[in-house]
Each structure stands twice: as structure tokens, then as C-alpha cells.
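Query structure, 93 C-alpha cells:
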């Protein structure tokens, strides 16, 4: 990788996160990764599950956010089922 494309990648990441390239470099040096879910810098090793399917080799969001999202999906699903049952009830009435 050339220096130019490396800094372009850094800039793109910094823009996505909304921090400066210097800040990003500091966090990288401390092995911290940005979680877009809770909008925090967290330890890459402790707070992120690995995901080898991704270029970064870890999940985009921290473990907390991933499990919260999974719980939310279940809730949405249950809410949707309840709504559908209500709609059916109204149509029948
Ligand atoms: Zn998070």
C-alpha cells in the first residue's frame, strides 16, 4: 500500500467516524476501535467479537451493541406479530 492510499483510507475512516486523522491514529495505536452503535472508542480486543468475513477481522459494532440489536430484532418481530393479530381482529369485527 502506498503512503497516499493509506492516508486516503485513514481520512475516509476519520470522516465516517467524525474525528480527525490524528485522533484516529492515536486510537489505532491504543488498539481501540470506534463503535458506531454506542458512538464510543472501545478496546478492539475486549469489546469486539471477531468476524473474519469482514476486512477488519472484527464486528463493526461492539459486543453490547450486537446483542442489543439482536434483542431489538426479537422485540420488533414480536411487536409486528402483535400488530398483525390486532389488524386481523379489526377486520374480523
Ligand atoms: Zn457499541
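Result returned for the query:
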Amino acid at each position: 500500500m502506498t503512503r497516499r492510499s493509506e492516508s486516503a483510507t485513514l481520512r475516509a475512516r476519520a470522516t465516517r467516524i467524525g474525528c480527525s486523522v490524528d485522533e484516529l491514529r492515536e486510537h489505532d495505536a491504543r488498539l481501540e476501535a470506534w463503535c458506531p452503535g454506542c458512538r464510543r472508542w472501545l478496546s478492539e480486543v475486549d469489546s469486539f467479537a471477531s468476524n473474519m468475513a469482514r476486512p477488519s477481522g472484527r464486528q463493526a459494532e461492539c459486543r453490547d451493541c450486537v446483542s442489543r440489536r439482536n434483542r431489538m430484532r426479537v422485540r420488533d418481530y414480536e411487536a409486528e406479530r402483535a400488530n398483525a393479530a390486532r389488524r386481523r381482529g379489526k377486520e374480523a369485527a
